[in-house]
Every structure is written in C-alpha cells, then in structure tokens.
Specification:
This protein has 265 residues and is of the alpha/beta class. The chain has one domain: HUPs (Rossmann fold), CATH 3.40.50. Strands 3-2-1-4-6-5 form a 6-stranded mixed β-sheet. Strand 2, helix 4 and strand 3 form a beta-alpha-beta unit. It is globular and about 55 Å long.
Length: 265
C-alpha cells in the first residue's frame, strides 16, 4: 500500500489564492508575472523535504526546455495540449511562468487545444472551462480520436509547428520519449515538447500544492489518472478504512506504478 505523501501545506479548492487572470487584464503578461513571482519564491526557498528539493530541480529543468522551445519557435508556432489533468496543469503553469520574461509581445489568449474524451466527466469539462477563463486560453476543442483531432487542429491552425504535451515517462508510450520528439510516421506532423517527461507522480503534486494551484475536484475524490467515465475510477490504493466507500485525495499517493490503478486497460 503506498505511503502518504511528504507533508506540504494543505490547500483546498476553496481557499487557494487566485493566481489567474481577472477580467480587467487586457493580456496574459500580468498573469504570467504573478505566477512567475510565486514560482521564484518557491525556487528560492529552502525545501521542507527531499521531495520538494526534487520538485525544484525538475522545475528548473522544465523551464530550460520551455525556454529552448521559445528560442526555436515563435508564439504563433506554439500551442499547448490541455485537458484539465494534473500533468498538463503543471505544464501550463510553467509555460505561463516562462512567458513572464519572454521578450516578444504576448497574445491576449494562449493558443491551446483540448481533445475531449468520448465519455467526459462533467467535473473535467467544468474545470477546463474554468482554466480557459482563468488562464486566458484560446482553447480549440475537438471531440474526435486523437490523431484526427490533431490533424483537424493543424488544418485550422496551420502556423502551429510545436505542441507542448504533459506526457510523463510512466505514461503509456512515454518510456522512450525525450524533451523534443517529432510525431511518429503517419501522424500529423509537429514537434512534441515534453517539459515534464521525467517528473514523478509525487513531484507533480508537490508542485501543485506548493504553488497552491487549484485543480480538478475529482482528484480530491481518489481519482489519480483521469480518462473518461467508462474507464476511470477512484484509485483502490487510496480507499479509506475498510467498510467505507470513501477515498483519500490523489496527492496522498506516492508511487508512480500505482498511479493508473483506477484506469481500466
């Protein structure tokens, strides 16, 4: 049974400080500046645990990958794949932080794409809607298989050459990926950028909680990997005391190998 996560200040969905944009902001730079200030403070602080020290190191590496992508591609050529999950949420926050010091003019809304599950959770769709508003996402939505969705997206946005993806090493098909990988033969052609590819599960949650980032409420109900309603269940490793149909929150899981125990194969 996985042990509890190292202690991090508890943050609920209701009391998390508002990091995102207000309607009065004309563009995303004020939002980026607020997030970057929070991140700078986190990176400058003495970590309370070895896990958080690892999060700091992973954060610096990820920012380096994002910076390299920003040097290679213009913002018109970059998009981010976002589905409301924890990994792409961390990626989104890091990307916005990196944009705080980007010399080029920033867009009013960030180019992004959401490939909708065939059987989406209402909670996930609601959270994606909130993210779209809070983080000024220019979100294109496609309810179709992934390959077809990316093909249609690139048809609609032909300038896009690179898409940031929140894939991690322990995800299906993630083992051999690097920070920059062209799509496989037969797929729509673009560069996949993987800034969080080597992050561990506990580090993802360490970042979210240290940065006090609001997240999808399903994670507080024991879900640890989000798919659709037909193949996703609370993680049995997080089940509360025997006889209770309650589950501990996702951030209490630590082991990477237990992350997808709630997903049907």
């Amino acid at each position: 049974m996985p042990s509890s996560a190292p202690a991090v200040a508890t943050v609920t969905q209701n009391d998390a400080p508002k990091l995102a944009n207000g309607n009065g902001d004309a563009g995303i730079r004020p939002l980026c500046a607020r997030l970057a200030a929070r991140l700078d403070a986190f990176l400058a602080a003495e970590p309370e645990s070895e896990m958080l020290r690892g999060v700091q190191e992973q954060t610096r590496t990820a920012l380096g990958v994002i910076t390299a992508a920003l040097e290679k591609y213009t913002l018109e050529e970059i998009s981010i794949s976002y589905n409301g999950g924890k990994d792409c949420l961390v990626l989104l926050i890091l990307f916005l932080c990196a944009l705080a010091t980007h010399p080029a003019p920033l867009p009013a809304r960030l180019q992004s794409v959401y490939i909708i599950s065939p059987h989406p959770f209402k909670e996930v769709d609601d959270f994606v809607d909130e993210s779209e508003a809070d983080y000024s996402l220019g979100l294109a939505r496609y309810a179709m298989p992934m390959m077809a969705a990316f093909a249609k997206y690139l048809e609609d946005e032909p300038r896009v050459k690179a898409i940031f993806v929140g894939t991690r090493r322990t995800d299906p098909h993630g083992m051999l990926l690097t920070h920059f990988d062209p799509t496989d033969q037969g797929w729509p052609a673009f560069m996949r950028v993987h800034p969080v590819i080597d992050w561990h599960y506990a580090e993802i949650w360490g970042f979210i909680r240290a940065m006090e980032v609001p997240y999808c409420q399903l994670y507080d109900q024991g879900y640890t990997s989000l798919g659709g309603t037909t193949d996703t269940h609370p993680n049995p490793a997080l089940k509360a005391d025997k006889g209770e149909e309650k589950f501990r929150p996702a951030y209490e899981l630590v082991e990477d190998k237990a992350e997808r125990l709630g997903r049907e194969k």
